[in-house]
Amino acid sequence: MASVPPTDDPATSEPWAGISFDGRAYHYRQYSYDRVEDALNYARLERARPGLPIETTAPLRWRQFSAPTQREREQMAERGIVYQAGRFVYGPYRYDVLADALNYAARQPGLDRPRS
């Protein structure tokens, strides 16, 4: 599990404790967030509650997502698929798995182009 690096400022580094990033989403406790700001805001909110025990590590193991390889990027370019926020995007659709995006793009060509 990848961790989000703490900031250099001691006043702001404490909320990073327990926040992890899996290549797609930020996680704090059992919750997942698309934006790191949302994870930080919730961590700060929890830390402000008196008497709440704070775990300094993320309790769950999250799946790791890596950026596409050069060969995968070439396949994506051929079909008009882009990689955004840890997902493969074709037209209005988002996919977790590149093969699914490639298969749909082969069956429904042209969704990557704006309609006139």
Question: How does this structure look, described?
Answer:
By secondary structure, the protein is an alpha+beta fold. The chain has 2 domains: 47 residues, no CATH class; 38 residues, no CATH class. It has 4 helices and 7 strands. The strands form 2 sheets. Strands 1-2-3-4 form a 4-stranded antiparallel sheet, with helices on one face. The longest helix is centred in the middle third of the chain and has 13 residues. The chain is elongated, with a radius of gyration of 18 Å. The N terminus is likely disordered.
Topology:
Elements lengths: L1 E2 L6 H4 L5 E3 L4 E3 L2 E3 L2 H13 L21 H10 L2 E3 L2 E4 L2 E3 L2 H10 L9
Helix pairs in contact: 3-4
Short description:
With 116 residues, the chain is of the alpha+beta class. Helices cover 32% and strands 18% of the residues. It contains four helices and seven strands; from the N terminus they run βαβββααβββα.
- Based on DSSP secondary structure assignment, what is the total number of beta strands? 7
Sheet with the most strands, sense and barrel status:
4 strands, antiparallel
Distance between the termini: 44 Å
Amount of helix: 25-40%
Strand order of the largest sheet: 1-2-3-4
Number of domains: 2
Beta-strand content bin: 15-25%
Q: Give start-end ranges of low-pLDDT stretches.
A: 1-13
Please, how many helices?
A: 4
Q: Shape, please?
A: elongated
Radius of gyration of CA atoms, rounded to a whole number: 18 Å
* Element order: H for helix, E for strand: EHEEEHHEEEH
